[in-house]
C-alpha cells in the first residue's frame, strides 16, 4: 500500500453533521456564549500542499497523547487556509507567546498576506513554512481527520519541536503564553498563578 493510500485510509473516518442523530442542541449564539469565559491557548498552524504557504490562527490546539505524541486542532470550513491544510501531509503548529499577538492577529485576518514579511518566516528542511519568532513550534504529520459540523478535527503525530531560544521552557524569562478569553487576547504571567507549580 502506498503512503498516500494509507493516509487516505485513516483520514475522514467519521463525521458529525447537522443531519447526524444528535439531540437538539444549543443555538450557535448560545453555544458561543457558553464558551466565552473558557480560555484557549493561541497557536498558528501553517502548511503547504504545493501551491504556496497558508496559515491560520487556532485556539483549539490540545495535546491528547504523549505516547505516541499526538495533538489535535480544528479548522473551519470558512477559513481560506482549510483546503490546503486538509490536503497537506504535514503541518507546523506554532504555540505563541504574548509577544506574538501581532502574528496571531495577522493569521486571523481575512484576506491578509500572512507571508509578505519574508524575514518573519522560513521553510523547515522538510519544506513546511515556519514563523521563526514563535517560542515553540511543533512539526508533525497528519494522522487522521474527522468532520464535525462545519469544522474538521485534525490529528497530528508530532515529529519535531523547534524553539526560538535555547532552553526556552526552562528559562525564568520564558515568554508569557498568549491566550484568548472573552473575545480578546491576554497574556498569562506570574500574577495569574493561583496554586504552586507541580513538583
Can you describe what's shown?
The chain is of the alpha+beta class and 199 residues long. 15% of the residues lie in helices and 37% in strands. The strands form 3 sheets. Strands 1, 3, 4, 5, 6, 7, 10 and 11 form an 8-stranded mixed beta sheet that branches. The chain is globular. The N and C termini lie far apart (46 Å).
Concise description?
The protein is built from four helices and 13 strands. With 199 residues, it is an alpha+beta fold. Strands 1, 3, 4, 5, 6, 7, 10 and 11 form an eight-stranded mixed β-sheet that branches. It has a three-stranded antiparallel β-sheet with strand order 2-12-13, with no helix packed on it.
Please supply descriptive tags for the structure shown above:
single chain, three-stranded antiparallel β-sheet, alpha+beta, eight-stranded mixed β-sheet, about 200 residues, disordered N terminus, about 15% helix
Q: What topology emerges from the helices and strands here?
A:
Blueprint lengths: L2 H8 L4 E2 L11 H8 L4 E2 L1 E5 L6 E5 L3 E5 L2 E8 L5 H6 L2 E6 L5 H8 L12 E3 L5 E3 L4 E13 L2 E13 L14 E4 L2 E4 L12
Number of helices: 4
Helix content: 10-25%
What composes the largest sheet? 8 strands, mixed
Structural class: alpha+beta
| Structural shape | globular
Order of helix and strand elements from N to C terminus:
HEHEEEEEHEHEEEEEE
Task: Round the mean pLDDT to the nearest integer and report it.
Answer: 87
Amino acid at each position: 500500500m502506498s503512503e498516500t493510500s494509507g493516509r487516505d485510509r485513516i483520514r475522514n473516518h467519521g463525521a458529525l453533521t447537522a443531519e447526524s442523530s444528535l439531540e437538539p442542541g444549543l443555538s450557535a449564539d448560545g453555544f458561543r456564549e457558553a464558551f466565552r469565559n473558557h480560555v484557549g491557548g493561541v497557536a498558528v498552524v501553517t502548511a503547504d500542499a504545493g501551491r504556496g504557504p497558508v496559515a491560520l490562527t487556532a485556539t483549539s490546539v490540545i495535546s491528547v497523547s504523549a505516547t505516541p505524541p499526538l495533538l489535535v486542532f480544528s479548522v473551519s470550513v470558512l477559513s481560506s487556509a482549510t483546503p490546503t491544510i486538509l490536503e497537506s501531509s504535514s503541518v507546523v503548529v506554532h504555540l505563541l507567546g504574548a509577544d506574538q499577538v501581532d502574528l496571531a492577529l495577522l493569521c486571523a485576518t481575512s484576506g491578509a498576506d500572512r507571508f509578505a514579511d519574508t524575514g518573519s518566516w522560513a521553510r523547515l528542511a522538510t519544506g513546511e513554512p515556519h514563523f521563526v519568532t514563535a517560542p515553540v513550534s511543533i512539526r508533525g504529520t497528519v494522522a487522521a481527520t474527522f468532520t464535525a459540523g462545519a469544522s474538521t478535527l485534525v490529528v497530528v503525530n508530532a515529529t519535531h519541536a523547534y524553539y526560538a531560544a535555547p532552553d526556552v521552557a526552562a528559562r525564568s524569562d520564558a515568554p508569557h503564553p498568549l491566550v484568548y478569553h472573552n473575545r480578546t487576547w491576554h497574556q498569562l504571567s506570574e500574577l495569574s498563578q493561583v496554586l504552586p507549580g507541580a513538583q
